[in-house]
């Protein structure tokens, strides 16, 4: 699925989760572009076995690592995150019962917006701090160079669109 398919769902996610300024939009777009491999996928390439038994992610049952591997345009990972997202958006556990739905629209975009809001990423985006935004999403600095390049591209695009 190409980037164009995500435009309206991403716009809806930004509105719903309070991602409103040009700088917030640029950081959000840069991060989702990186996390989704340039909008090529909304499912983590790795199997998820590395998350098996990770109690910090809520993966307490056998098979949880694979079942709740990263999905969405910002890779929602772990039973606890799927459960919290599902409860917040739907008031039930449908995303726990059917984790694959998080990789499909509109949930792929909504999960990214939900993650952004619940992790208070607007505050870091407002500081224009790609390193801190990346660490909060990734837990480290994986892909920082790509995220930084994508941020520069997003800023240029948003500035150009703002001139219309």
Kindly describe this structure:
The chain is mainly α. It has a single domain, classed as Lysozyme. It has nine helices and no strands. It has helices spanning 3-16, 22-35, 64-67, 79-90, 94-97, 107-118, 121-126, 130-138, 144-162. Helix 1 (3-16) crosses helix 6 (107-118) and helix 2 (22-35) crosses helix 9 (144-162). The mean pLDDT is 96. GO terms for molecular function: chitinase activity. It comes from Pseudoxanthomonas winnipegensis. InterPro entries: Cell_Wall_Dynamics_Protein, Glyco_hydro_19_cat, Lysozyme-like_dom_sf. Residues 26-122 form the Glycoside hydrolase family 19 catalytic domain.
Provide the succession of SSEs.
HHHHHHHHH
- Mean pLDDT across residues: 96
Q: Classify the helix fraction into a percent range.
A: 55-70%
Return the CATH topology: Lysozyme
Count of structural domains: 1
The quaternary state of the protein chains shown equals: single chain
Instruction: Give the amount of beta strand, in percent.
Output: under 5%
Structural class: mainly alpha
Number of helices: 9
**Termini separation:** 28 Å
Any idea of the CATH class? Answer: Mainly Alpha
Strand tally: 0
Envelope shape: globular
Low-confidence stretches: none
Rg, Cα atoms, Å: 15 Å
CATH architecture: Orthogonal Bundle
Question: Biggest sheet, in brief?
Answer: none
Concise account of the structure shown:
This is Glycoside hydrolase family 19 catalytic domain-containing protein. Pfam families: Glyco_hydro_19. With 164 residues, this protein is mainly α.
